[in-house]
Design brief:
The structure is a single chain. The protein has 1025 residues and is mostly beta strands. Among the domains are: 88 residues, Immunoglobulin-like; 130 residues, Beta Complex (Ferric Hydroxamate Uptake Protein, Chain A, domain 1), CATH 2.170.130; 110 residues, no CATH class; 153 residues, no CATH class; 202 residues, no CATH class. Helix content is 9%, strand content 46%. The chain has 13 helices and 53 strands. The chain has a 22-stranded antiparallel barrel. A five-stranded mixed sheet has the order 10-15-16-13-14. A four-stranded antiparallel sheet has the order 3-2-5-6, with no helix packed on it. β26 and β27 form a beta hairpin. α6 packs antiparallel against α8. The longest helix has 14 residues. The chain is globular, with a radius of gyration of 31 Å. The two termini are 26 Å apart. The N terminus is likely disordered.
Length: 1025
């Protein structure tokens, strides 16, 4: 509170000046321009124009030049002289080459940037209703692949900059107002002022090991001197299921399972002349409309010495599955302030406090949970049992699940292998998570008068976080076939984390003639600690979520608990030097020296250099051209490191083991947890990047092209050892991974009278390959239950790839089946899959498993267009990805069992039914064996390519002639549809959701029953006073 009060006190202070000037600012159409920045050149003294374009400013008598700047317009400098009134007309900057963008530890003009850096407009961030602002990178930034891990409210995202380079963490570093973060869920997107992505190693090298996976640089909005400005941005909308799987109805289901039973040598199960009374569409019953809303209010202003910006934001989203059982809300508070103490000293602070609350439902569980059960439950069971069945249910199971109004949920008497009533699951369980975050920094700048261009900055940043969770399931049964009750259970957990960083930088800028030199040196010290404790118990004494605590259990033996403390420290020294001649030839060199506690003393420190160069060709070859206005070549080489491994992997560590019995007593023991490796060292990525930029026809058409080759050597990963060792695998440097690709960004911007349009497109290609694995043929990753095949890592293949069986169509007749069986020693029949003997040894076995695809898209695409006519605007945004395979684990899991009575996708209706019927999908039988137990490229892997109409928005802004009378600066209303259409051949709910079960490479590409994304329709408004 003292910080808030002090900031407002400083901002309200005024200082006497020698002269008052005023004026009006207009655009190219002679309309007033509100919000234009007016600064006395060489100082921080300034103001902004009001809603009529007017400004007024007190200036010292020695002031000589005013600088007028506004986003989308060319900066204009005006000599003050003896004038006291000014009429200013700003010209549109068709391509903002003079725009200043944020880079590592500084800012540079876009025209002289030599690295691969992409910017995202703040309007694009707010165009789609997102929880995490990084989601706005999807389809808008070439070289960045964004995957929504789940559509459940509050779920995370997976971001990969230029592919997957590590078997560990692949997420980029986030730097918010100088504070380094691992995620930005806490951040209100409305608070963001600038958003840049450092993609190449040379650009991110200034952040050393922290920037190994790319860097996302974010600055938040700041106040400006002048009148107090109040703004409101908000929307409210309704969500619905964007897509539904094509599942069999009751009639199709019965016919299908009759066929499977007959083909297995059994009789028909269903009498089609006497169908059951129910034909339940479980998707219709489970999916529901759900609200989504966001509200943000900001207050900014200040004096010539102090400025501030404060905001409060609230975001809330209910789920399309589970409603308030699957919801999320966030409350955020922010205060930024900057203060000029003297001509040499300035200081400021940024504070952000947020609380997040989330309720969730179980998903991504392969064969359990509400989502999987919705897709696989038979359609002949009712949602609610008729009252006549209540007595039967009570007799079969002790604790049938009931709704709040006392109705019994329907229970199938078929063998669904654990699949149960999805509505009963949702109503019967509760998962609650709570988070609090305090993030901020305080900085001091010193610019000595005696040395022009010298600047010293010290910055202390911190993050304090806490979380807690509670999960509860009562004793219950939803399975009439097994007649089993599930035990009641509770899980609780809490964690607290503290992160601090202290950075000091000294920079110097000097110009002489046409030459400009900039240098920077600095150091960073960072510490992160996390303490956590978890516990669980079963067979609770008292039911109800209000009693869901660990001490509510019948037997102490049912309780488990664990906890630990994690501590990480990093110290770094870095330097940067820039040379610029006439904004035509540019050269940049960066060095970074990092030390991490994750490595032993001999390998603790590592050195990472980089160099960048640029040549603005148009200044030499096209200076008088009417077509080519800007052309530039860029080249860079950089090295970055990675140290994202468990702490103390170089030491032998001891941990608690499971309880064991000795003489009838239970004991807890301690043992070595994993083998130590004192020789582990930094994982290092080297990257070459070549870039080409060209602007044509007054820069209305602008093209950016980048090609890159990134190689990450000394890959850090657990090196598997035989189970007989009885100890965890050691962490080792095991190989080299390559990512190489092409990135294209195209923008066309023009205006014709009152009609303006801005069209941009991106396309990026990435090829991922493991170049070497030291001492191993391959390393295995995630493996679904009941399947002979899994994700793997092997030299010459993607990290990871699907390791399974190749196929060559369907055996169409007895002759083909006989020849196949004689060649491979099988007992296949017509309609079975023809598997390929890849090693040619005359047998089909595990040795024939091979590369059958990978989970990474080759191309990432995006198309964004905005059209404006007078006060009306429309924008449309498409994004898509092509080339990846996705394993639909949830839909295929029960196929392997053979006798399951669950439902199927209607694509199974295209199965083989006789010679010539199809060559792409096998026959159906309850004992189909290899067809469904061997992971293959015919049945299990599906093409996950898609194109999505992400956003369609219509807006209207009230004219200034109306607003000026009400003393309002801006009013805009808009209506938006999001996730409107998806074009894909994938049979699951969403080709994007579920592609990553975590951020580890060896768990990618598995849809294990993921919560799908929602389609939404929202109405919103933007107000500025």
């Amino acid at each position: 509170m003292l910080t808030f009060a002090f900031s407002f006190l400083l901002c309200s202070t005024t200082f006497a000046q020698d002269k008052t000037i005023s004026g009006q600012i207009l655009d190219e159409n002679k309309a007033s321009l509100p919000g234009v920045s007016v600064i006395v050149k060489g100082t921080n003294l300034g103001t902004v124009s009001d809603f009529e374009g007017n400004f007024k400013l007190s200036i010292p008598s020695e002031a000589t030049v005013l600088v007028f700047s506004f986003i989308g317009y060319n900066n204009q400098e005006v000599t003050i002289g003896n004038q006291t009134t000014f009429d200013i007309s700003l010209e549109v900057n068709e391509k903002q080459l003079d725009e200043v963008i944020v880079v590592g530890y500084g800012v540079e003009k876009k025209a002289v940037v030599t690295g691969a850096i992409s910017s995202v407009k703040t309007d694009d961030i707010l165009q789609t209703p997102v929880l995490n602002a990084a989601q706005s990178l999807q389809g808008r930034t070439a070289g960045v692949q964004v995957t929504n891990v789940s559509g459940q409210p509050g779920a995370g995202i997976d971001i990969r900059v230029r592919g997957t380079g590590s078997n560990g963490n692949n997420s980029p570093l986030y730097v918010v107002d100088g504070v380094q973060m691992d995620n930005i869920n806490y951040l209100n997107p409305n608070d963001i002022a600038t958003f840049q992505v450092l993609k190449d190693a040379a650009s991110s090298a200034i952040y050393g090991s922290r920037g190994a996976n790319g860097v996302v640089l974010i600055t938040t909005k700041e106040g400006k001197s002048g009148k107090l400005t109040v703004s409101y941005d908000g929307y409210y909308g309704v969500q619905q299921a964007a897509n539904r799987a094509d599942l069999m109805n009751a009639r199709e289901y019965m016919e299908f399972h009759n066929e499977g039973s007959v083909n297995a040598g059994n009789g028909e199960k269903w009498d089609l002349d006497n169908p059951p009374a129910h034909d339940t569409d479980w998707q219709k019953e489970v999916f529901q409309n759900a609200p989504i809303q966001n509200h943000s209010v900001s207050l900014s202003g200040g004096s010539e010495k102090s400025t501030f910006m404060s905001s409060i934001g609230y975001f809330a989203q209910d789920g399309i599955i589970g409603g308030d059982k699957s919801n999320y809300n966030r409350l955020s508070l922010r205060l930024n302030s900057n203060h000029k103490i003297s001509q040499s000293f300035t200081f400021g602070q940024n504070l952000n406090f947020s609380t997040e609350n989330k309720n969730g439902i179980q998903e991504q569980t392969e064969h359990e949970g509400a989502v999987t059960s919705m897709l696989l439950h038979d359609p002949v069971t009712p949602v609610y049992a008729p009252e006549s069945d209540y007595a039967k249910y009570d007799a079969i199971v002790p604790s049938p699940v009931k709704s709040d109004d006392g109705r019994y949920y329907g229970m199938s008497d078929l063998n669904l292998q654990g699949i149960t009533n999805p509505l009963g699951i949702i109503d019967n369980t509760k998962q609650e998570y709570n988070y609090m975050n305090l993030v901020g920094n305080v900085y001091l700048n010193f610019q000595p008068k005696m040395i022009k261009g010298l600047n010293f900055k010290t910055d202390f940043g911190f993050q304090l976080g806490s979380s807690k969770k509670r999960e509860y399931s009562p004793i219950s049964s939803l399975d009439q076939f097994t007649k089993k009750n599930s035990l009641s259970s509770v899980r609780q957990g809490q964690s607290q984390s503290t992160t601090w960083q202290w950075e000091n930088t000294l920079s110097y800028t000097h110009s002489f003639g046409d030459h400009k030199l900039t240098g920077l040196i600095g150091n960073t010290a960072r510490e992160h600690s996390n303490e956590w404790i978890n516990g669980s118990g079963t067979d609770l004494q008292f039911s109800g979520y209000e009693n869901a605590y660990l001490d509510n259990k019948v037997k102490n033996e049912s309780q488990t608990n664990d906890g630990n403390r994690y501590l990480h420290r990093l110290v770094s020294y870095f330097g940067k030097a820039n040379y610029n001649y006439k904004d035509k030839y540019m050269l940049t060199a960066i060095v970074r020296y990092d030390g991490s506690v994750n490595f032993g003393p001999e390998n603790r420190f590592a050195f990472f250099p980089s160099v960048q160069a640029g040549w603005v060709i148009s200044e030499d070859l096209f200076k008088t051209s009417d077509i080519v206005n800007f052309m530039r070549l860029r080249a860079s080489y950089g090295e970055v490191g990675n140290e994202s491994i468990e702490p103390f992997a170089y030491l032998s560590t001891i941990g608690k083991t499971e309880e064991y019995l000795y003489n009838g007593e239970r004991y807890t023991g301690f043992a070595a947890q994993k083998m130590p490796n004192p020789a582990i060292r930094w994982e290092t990525a080297t990257e070459i990047n070549l870039g080409f930029d060209v602007g044509l026809w007054q820069n209305k058409l602008f093209l950016n092209v980048d090609v890159y080759d990134r190689r990450r050597k000394d890959l850090l990963s657990d090196n598997p050892v035989p189970l007989i060792y009885g100890i965890g695998a050691p962490t080792a440097n095991i190989g080299t991974v390559q990512n190489k690709g092409l990135e294209l960004s195209l923008n066309f911007k023009n205006s014709e009278g009152d009609f303006r349009y801005d069209i941009s497109a991106i396309a990026s290609y990435n090829d991922n390959k493991v170049l070497s694995i030291d001492g191993k043929d391959h390393i295995l990753g995630y493996k679904p239950d009941f399947y002979d095949g899994q994700l793997a890592m092997k030299e010459g293949h993607s990290l990871p790839y699907f390791w399974g069986y190749k196929t060559d169509g369907i055996l169409q007749n007895d002759a083909e089946a006989k020849a196949y069986n004689e060649a491979l020693g099988k007992s296949a029949v017509p309609g079975d899959i023809r598997f390929v003997d890849t090693n040619g040894d005359g047998a089909l076995n595990a040795e024939d498993r091979t590369d059958i695809g990978d989970p990474f898209h080759d191309w990432t695409l995006g198309l964004n267009a905005r059209f404006e006519y007078k006060n009306f605007d429309m924008s449309i945004f498409f994004q898509g990805q092509t080339g990846a395979k996705l394993f639909n684990v949830a839909a295929m899991r029960l196929d392997a069992i053979g006798a399951g009575a669950h439902n199927y996708n209607t694509r199974f209706l295209g199965r083989w039914t006789g010679e010539g019927s199809t060559n792409s999908f096998p026959r159906w039988s309850h004992t189909a064996g290899d067809n469904f137990t061997l992971i293959n490229d015919m049945v299990h892997l599906e093409d996950a390519s898609y194109v999505r109409l992400k956003t369609l928005q219509f807006g209207y802004s009230l004219p200034q002639s109306i607003l000026s009378k009400a003393k309002i600066q801006n009013v805009r209303f808009y209506f938006s549809g999001n996730n409107l259409l998806t074009f894909t051949n994938y049979s699951g709910l969403d080709p994007e959701v579920g592609q990553s079960n975590d951020n580890q490479a060896m768990g990618f590409g598995m849809d294990r029953g993921s919560y799908p994304q929602a389609r939404s329709f929202i109405f919103g408004t933007n107000l500025t006073f």
